[in-house]
Every structure is written in C-alpha cells, then in structure tokens.
Design a protein that fits this description.
Elements: H1 4-15, E1 25-31, H2 45-63, H3 65-71, E2 75-85, E3 94-104, E4 109-117, E5 120-133, E6 136-138, H4 140-146, H5 159-169
Antiparallel strand pairs: 1-3, 2-5, 3-4, 4-5, 5-6
Length: 177
C-alpha cells in the first residue's frame, strides 16, 4: 500500500519550510520501517522508488512547481528512471534523502535523488519526469512559463545523463516480445 500518511507528513513539513529555488536541493529524513522490507530484511527496491517519491513531492511544493501544475490542471508522470543500489538499508536505519532538478530538455525534466546513511550514499536515481495534460506531454517551456521562469535555460546536463538519454532513444518501443 502506498504510504499516504508518510506522504501527508512530508507535505505538511514542506508547507512549513522556506521556498526553494528550482536549482536548490530539498533534504528530507526517513526511517526504514518493518513494512518497507523485502524477504532479505532490507529496504525493498520498490519501496525505495516510493521513498524517492516522498522527496520529489515536497521538492515540487517548495519550488512552486506543484502549485503551478495544479493551477493549470496538469499532472505529472515519471517517464523513465535509472537506479543504482549500492548499500543495504536495514530496518530502523535512518536515511537522508536529497532531491534536486539537474536540468531539462523540450519535453522532460531530469531530477537526481540520492539516499544517504551515515554519510555514505546507499542509492541514487535519475528520474525523467513529464508534465501532462489531456493532450499528452506539456512542453517544458510552458511549464517554466507557468512557474514565472519563461527565460530560464537548463543547466548543461552531465555526460552521464545525456548518455542515458541517448541510450534510451535506441530502446525498442513497444518491447519486441
């Protein structure tokens, strides 16, 4: 089940924090609870993705993106993700989750997130996010205009991000089986 109570807690906390520039970093803290575990008694990979959600939503709130999207009656979607799992997160361990927007192209915004425990990075994700309306994807120039940033230019995307974007262009869709 989706952790709606945890999401509500993060929304309340974000509403009490100062606004954040679109290029800022949102930091939140979480605990790996027993219901987050897999059969090896560590943070389940699916729950890891859900916890990353709990970092993106408050980031969007603090940057004003959530308000702008809601005002336009737009929605949001994860259009792709690449995750690196490097350290186990065990029951009751505390993690620090960091979220930042690293850039965009004409259709997608690219968000980088990481989970840290004891000063060591445990997991890292690159998320390709899309803003949507009833007609499909809303272009990023329209999103930026709604945010009051019509002239904002994306910072250069790092090579590892552009490499992932390029590799994904060659991925067959729909799948061949």
């Amino acid at each position: 089940m989706y952790p709606f109570i945890r999401l509500a807690k993060e929304i309340i906390k974000a509403s009490r924090q100062p606004a954040l520039r679109y290029d800022g970093v949102h930091v939140s803290h979480h605990i790996c609870w027993p219901w987050d575990l897999d059969m090896w008694l560590e943070l389940n990979n699916g729950r890891t993705l859900t916890l990353f959600d709990l970092g993106r939503v408050p980031f969007m709130m603090r940057t004003g993106m959530a308000r702008a999207v809601a005002k336009q009656r737009w929605g949001g979607a994860v259009a792709g993700a690449s995750v690196m799992y490097r350290r186990r997160v065990r029951m009751f361990e505390r993690i620090e989750l960091r979220t930042r927007l690293i850039g965009w192209d004409d259709k997608f915004m690219y968000t980088e997130q990481s989970m840290w425990k004891g000063g060591i990075c445990a997991n890292h994700i690159l998320v390709r996010g899309a803003t949507t309306d009833k007609n499909g994807i809303v272009t990023t120039d329209r999103v930026l205009a709604a945010l009051g940033l019509p002239d904002a230019k994306s910072p250069p995307l790092p090579d590892w991000v552009t490499g992932w974007i390029e590799a994904d262009r060659h991925r067959p869709w729909p799948p061949e089986f």
